[in-house]
Amino acid sequence: MGATRIVFLGPPGAGKGTQAKRVVGELGLEHLSTGDILRDEVARSTGLGNEAKGFMDRGELVPDGLIIDMIGGRIERAKKGFVLDGFPRTVAQAEALDRISKLDAVVNIDLSRAEVVRRLTARRVCRACGTIYNLGFNLAAGTARCEACGGELYQRDDDQPSVIENRYDVYERSTAPLIAFYRARGLLRPVDGKLGSDRVFAEVMRILAA
Ligand code: AMP
User: Fold this and answer.
1) Which architecture characterizes domain 4-112+175-209 according to CATH?
2) Which of 131, 148, 179, 207 is the S-S candidate for 126 at Cβ 3.0 to 4.6 Å?
3) Closest-lying ligand 1 atom to the alpha carbon of residue 12
4) Set 16, 22, 119, 189: catalytic member
C-alpha cells in the first residue's frame, strides 16, 4: 500500500484542489480542503463563517486556532487516510498537525507568481459539484454551466486580481517556509505545477505509489 496520509502544498492556483479531487477518486481517501469547508461555513453564515469571511475576502489567513479546531477532528476521523488540501498553511499549523497524525508524503506543487495570477483570473468553479475550470484551457468564454453536472459556474470572490497578489504574498511569507519544514523531515515530494493537470496527476500517482 502506498501513501494514505497526504498533504498538498503549493501557492493558490497551483492545482492542489484539482489534484486532490483526482487522487481521492483514485485511492478512496478523504478529501479535506480547509478552503472548501470555510466557504461552506461562510455560505451558511455560521459563527465560524462570519469570523472567517473578512480574512478570506482580503486574501489573508484565518487565524491558526480557528483552523486547527475546525480540521483536527476531521483528520482524526479519516481512518482510511486523507488528502489535505490547503492545510497546513503556517508552521504553527504544521506543528499542530504533527501532534494529530503521522504523514506519508507532502506533495509540493510549485508555480510562479505570474502563472498563479494568470490561472486564478481565469478560474471558474461549479457551485453544485465543485469542478474547477480555466477559461481558455478547458472552458470556452461565455459558458455558464458545468459540463459535469449542469450547475452554475461562478468566480470566487478572492479570485480578483488585487486579492490574488495579496494571497501570493501571504503564501510566500507564511506557507513557503513549510517547504523547508517538510524537506527536513524527509517528506517533501516536488512536482512542477506548469506541467498541466494530466501530467501532474501522473507524476503525483507515481510519487504516492513509491
Ligand atoms: P483556498 O480555497 O485553499 O485557496 O482557501 C481560501 C481562503 O480560505 C484562504 O485565502 C484563507 O483566507 C482561508 N484558508 C483556507 N485554508 C486555510 C488555512 N489552512 N489557514 C488559514 N486560512 C485558510
Assistant:
1) 3-Layer(aba) Sandwich (3.40)
2) 131
3) 4
4) 16
Q: Is the pLDDT of residue 131 over 60?
A: yes
Q: 17 and 33 in contact (C-beta within 8 Å)?
A: yes
Compute the distance between CA of residue 90 and CA of residue 178 in angstroms, rounded to an integer. 7
Q: Which amino acid is at 21?
A: K
Task: Please report the pLDDT score of residue 137 as a whole number.
Answer: 86
> pTM higher than 0.85 for the full model?
yes
Can 102 be counted among the known catalytic residues?
no
Residue 16 falls in the annotated catalytic set: yes
Give the rounded distance of the alpha carbon of 197 from its chain centre: 14
Query: Which DSSP letter does residue 158 get?
Result: G
The answer to whether residues 31 and 4 touch, using CB atoms and an 8 Å cutoff, is: no
Q: What residues does each domain of the chain span? A: 4-112+175-209
Rounded CA-CA distance 176/136 in Å is: 29
